[in-house]
Design brief:
This protein is mainly alpha-helical. It has 9 helices and no strands. Helix 4 runs antiparallel to helix 5, helix 4 crosses helix 6 and helix 5 runs parallel beside helix 8. The longest helix is centred in the middle third of the chain and has 28 residues.
């Protein structure tokens, strides 16, 4: 990260806002790269080109800073993209596609989001620090719950249209999410090669989709 030149002296309101954003962004990168234990307040201030007093005036300690970074910066950024995806997922199928095809489109959009580098970084940081900060799981759960709800709604629509067996209950939504997203997410967290390239992701997704379709007994 390039060192930013900051003005000397106490900043005005606009400068204070910009400094806040810069400190948080700097801390986020260091926490993602090195983990909670690997980063000190002094290191964050130095990397941001700011004084330690500027950092401590805003955050009493590293724990408070980490919570702000995770919840108000990383999760906010990821949730903005998730909400955009949800808006697209909520759209009704076009005349050219049925409910099952809409579910396929929804599943691929979700898959791409969950395997995106920024999403993986948030999960990696969460996995590393979840014991120290158990409250973070609420942020993670909020991120996935709305997507599961949308998938459950689309599964019901496909059932109503006679495309999925009626005996498939709504636990299928969570199982479907796990099949499509948790496997490749774990692989990405462990830096395994199964989802590194677009061809790898395409093979994984279409294989998972076929397994889902076969298991729910979709009519030909």
């Amino acid at each position: 990260m390039a060192r930013r030149e900051l003005k000397k002296g106490r900043p005005d309101l606009q400068g204070s806002i910009e400094l806040d954003a810069h400190l948080i962004a700097t801390a986020a990168k260091l926490f993602v790269d090195q983990g909670y234990e690997g980063v000190s307040m002094g290191q964050i201030a130095a990397a941001a080109g700011a004084g330690k007093q500027s950092l401590y005036r805003r955050y009493a300690n590293k724990e408070a800073l980490f919570k702000a970074v995770f919840t108000n910066f990383l999760m906010k950024h990821v949730m903005t993209r998730a909400e955009h995806n949800l808006a697209m997922l909520a759209q009704d199928p076009t005349e050219a596609e049925n409910d099952l095809e809409a579910l396929h489109r929804m599943a691929r959009l979700t898959f791409d989001f969950m395997t995106d580098r920024e999403t993986v970084e948030v999960f990696r940081l969460y996995v590393g620090e979840r014991c120290r900060f158990p409250g973070l799981k609420l942020d993670i759960r909020r991120m996935t719950q709305d997507v599961e709800d949308q998938i459950a709604r689309r599964i019901r629509s496909a059932q109503d249209a006679g495309l999925i067996r009626e005996d498939i209950d709504q636990h299928a939504a969570r199982s479907f999410m796990a099949l499509l997203n948790e496997g490749p997410l774990v692989h990405a967290l462990m830096e395994l090669p199964s989802v590194e390239t677009e061809a790898d992701r395409e093979r994984y997704f279409e294989g998972a989709w076929k397994a889902f379709v076969d298991s729910v007994g979709v009519r030909p």
